[in-house]
Design goal:
By secondary structure, the chain is mostly helical. Helices cover 74% and strands 0% of the residues.
């Protein structure tokens, strides 16, 4: 099966839409009580500058999915 190709502008637009979607998802996750509780349990009162917000959210999602898969 041949790979689907998209015009350059369509790829750029899709990437922009994906980035906006991820940014909105990040905001929703960061403000959720589950993420905030996880972050407090994991990092306590330490400054959260050790990892970027995106890295912490990815870690949170990975751990959550691992727990659900178990």
């Amino acid at each position: 099966m041949a790979a689907t190709t998209f015009p350059h502008d369509a790829r750029k637009e899709a990437n922009g839409a994906d980035r906006r979607l991820w940014t909105n998802l990040e905001r929703a996750i960061a403000s959720s009580s589950g993420f905030q509780r996880w972050q407090l349990e994991r990092y306590g009162d330490r400054p959260d500058g050790e990892l970027s917000l995106e890295a912490r959210i990815r870690c949170y999602l990975r751990e959550t999915l691992e727990t659900l898969a178990y």
